[in-house]
Amino acid sequence: MQPIRLVSGFVTVGMWTLLSRVLGFVRDILIAAYLGTGPVAEAFLVAFSLPNMFRRFFAEGAFNMAFVPMFSKKLEGGDDALGFARDAFTGLASVLIVFSLIAQVAMPFLVLAMASGFVGDERFDLAVFYGRIAFPYILFISLAALLSGVLNATGRFVAAAAAPVLLNVLFVGAMVLANAMGWPVGDALAWTVPVAGVAQMALVWRAAARAGFRLTLRRPRMTPELKRLAMIAAPAALAGGVVQVNLLIGRQVASFFDGAVAWLSYADRLYQLPLGVVGIAIGVVLLPDLSRRLRAEDTDGGRDAFNRAGEMALALTVPAAVALAVIPGPLVGVLFQRGAFDGADAAATAAAVAVYGAGLPAFVMQKVLQPLFFAREDTRRPFYYALAALAVNAGLAIGLAPFIGYIAAAFGTTLAGWAMVGLLWRGSRGMGDAAVLDARFVRRLGRIVLASGGMGAILWAGAWAMAPWLHAGAGRYGALALLIGLGIGAYFALGHLLGAFRLGEFSRALRRQR
């Protein structure tokens, strides 16, 4: 994959992820309007987080990080990639069917582990009820993730990137219909979860079949290749488990403060927009590309792919982090403050947005650094680094909660993210030339920071000047759009003038999508 194709792949995945995240905003805006931060909203958010937590543990986090490099190398070497994928598909399905059945029985304990602060009020029973409905989603979405890995490894990104859009379309449709028909909105959301899982899996299964990889279930068998896959995936699964424990710590802390689970969830949606558009796109495209280059012993190509990915990650996330820190109030107020979501909810959510924003570059750089390890089938060291980051998160979130309340969970997440980046970077120093920063990356990094700082000053002044319009009726939507447009224009103008990037690099990548 040449550099322009690498950037083109980032743009493809990023554009579809952006659409998904925008629809996710619409979804969360409606949840906030219909349910606010009340017990039904918090119960559903915890219930929905259960299959998503284990999905990252089984699929994107562990299984796919081991599967994609092995599958990519089989494609590169002309081995039986289809047979390997079918065995992996069957094995993953078998494990998840059993796991889903166990989870139905153990659901009260799972909710307790997620939010023990719910015990003794209506949120606990609601979360258990919603959790049992939503949990089968893990089976369908994990199989969809494996199919997406097959597509991404073959350079086909569109279907896999488009699949998450279905989830949010179905959520929005379910809430609008439930509200119109007088049905309980929380119940409608819960039942939509497994339906969306089936729809997403069907989309990528069809795309994989058309690409020549028709994956069907067969009798499970433990082949030597699956044993190797399991041995590689096990440390990654443990690392994924540590990451999920980090999330558990945050939710546990939040569950002891009324409304905090919802505040942190809505804040998470805001910083997940740039994280998803950039970080997920880079992780999806970079891992199979690095795996192929390492198989072909293309060190120079691997180094260039790594540097361009890091450069693009920082060029897009540093300004986003500055924006989240400078104007969290207008962002949250305009996007979420309506219906059952009041001004106090908006202020609490905005504080969390600012803290999460400070960690945004770290969360994305993890996506750039981890493929250096996973492409070499090294999943052990990221596990050890994740343990260290867990200690940082737990110490801060739990230790600070009695003094600063729910916001301690956001501080723990952000600082743990930076600790993880530091450890990954230090660990990559012994990987040879492929992990070396080139002169272009180093030169542009300072200019990206300078351009972002200039944009932040312009955003702050713009927010001050437009304050009356940002808080006034329907006009606030136009005012926020104008403010965001001002920030984007200022950043790209400053970045181009300072040499942080060349605008032609983005336009060439976009032309590749037409």
Explain what you see.
With 514 residues, the protein is mainly α. The protein has one domain (3-511). It has helices at residues 3-35, 39-77, 81-114, 122-134, 137-153, 158-181, 185-210, 224-255, 260-295, 299-326, 328-336, 343-358, 360-374, 380-404, 407-428, 439-465, 467-470, 475-498, 503-511. Helix 2 runs parallel beside helix 9, helix 10 runs antiparallel to helix 12 (343-358) and helix 16 (439-465) runs antiparallel to helix 18. It starts with a helix and ends with a helix.
Please render the helix and strand layout as text.
Layout: H1 3-35, H2 39-77, H3 81-114, H4 122-134, H5 137-153, H6 158-181, H7 185-210, H8 224-255, H9 260-295, H10 299-326, H11 328-336, H12 343-358, H13 360-374, H14 380-404, H15 407-428, H16 439-465, H17 467-470, H18 475-498, H19 503-511
Features:
mainly alpha; 514 residues; 19 helices; globular
Summarize the biggest pleated sheet: none
Helix content: over 70%
Rounded mean pLDDT score: 85
Which runs of at least 5 residues are low in confidence (pLDDT < 50)?
none
Broad structural category: mainly alpha
Give the CA-CA distance, first to last residue.
18 Å
Q: Beta-sheet strand percentage?
A: under 5%
- Helix-strand string: HHHHHHHHHHHHHHHHHHH
- Radius of gyration, in angstroms, nearest whole number: 22 Å
The total domain count is 1
Shape: globular
Count of beta strands: 0
Number of helices: 19
